[in-house]
Amino acid sequence: MGALVHLATLERIAQLTLNRPDAYNALDLPTARELSAILLELSTDTAVHGVVITGAGKAFSAGGDIRRAMAHGQGPAALFHELATYVHLCVTEIRRMRKPVLAAINGIAAGGGFSLALACDFRVMAASARLKQAFTSNALCIDAGGTFTLPRLVGLARALEIAAFDEPISAQQALAWGLVTKVVDDTQVLEAGLEMVRIIAQKSLHTFGWSKALLTNAFETSWETQLEYERQGLVSCAGHADGKEGMRAFLEKRPAHFNR
Question: Distance between alpha carbon 44 and the CA centroid of its chain, in Å?
Answer without folding.
Answer: 17
